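Hey,
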Amino acid sequence: MTLIVVLALGAFFGISHFRQNNSDSGDYEAAAADKAASPDASDSYVTRCGTPPTFTPTKIVTDSGALAVTMKITATCPTGDVLASSRTRVSVSASGANVASGYFNFSSTPIFVPRTDTGGQKYTEQIFRFPIGAFWRTPESLPSPSASTFVIESQQSGTTGAQSGEFLSRSTSFDATAPASPSTGDVEKASYDALRAIGDADRPVVLSQLGEKWVPQISSKRLGLVADGVTWNNTEMLREHLELRLRYPNVKLLWSGEWSVFSSKDFWITVAGVTYSDSADANRWCSTNGLSADHCFAKLISATHPIEGSTASR
């Protein structure tokens, strides 16, 4: 069992949203055989290292179903490295805040990390996808890259596959097979911190883009509420918000206590960031997207407007 802790100062860039299809994780063996037949095959042949490699995040984005973290992996042995554990816990935190944590299976598709004792490529870049339930922070809610300390922890367990092989200059997208515990604290605390961070990051955008406009409100939940067969805690509220955020356009999170148009001041409110000048159009969006009247209605977003006249049910 190996524990890896790597600190990367201001190491990622290009925070944005994108839609990505998983890379094919297929016949690397055939490609490796072709590579081995080349004159410089010895330069690409790597063996498992006795000390863990370093991980550096280079990009953090969300796609249609996960938080995708691109990692630059560099071997600490001159002869490269092989990651082939069937159960590897990879956790990401930023300036002490939990970002993501999940288990990955590399036994059937190992990661071959290049040698550092040749003139070739010194690292490999691979994409680690953390589905909903295995990540807490959105890219927008992360600290400034230039001021952040990113810590990647990796703990290998389970069965181990390949001990050596050919490094191929390609990126593969790996999906976490299960969520893992956060780096610090528990899941409920990580979820609360994430809700607060996402709401804080969204507030200036809501003020500038959604303020004094009608939008579809698609969720309102508070701690301890019993609704839809769920007793809502921070973990469930974050899960629902992230599902909605990755499904609909420009979704934002509001804390009701910071806005004048909500009578209860302790709700997390999720809205779709499509704006309209009247409530009828906002309600039409709800109908077009197949959302029931109990789960979607028109709401005027404002920090000054009175509660009266700010809600239009269907």
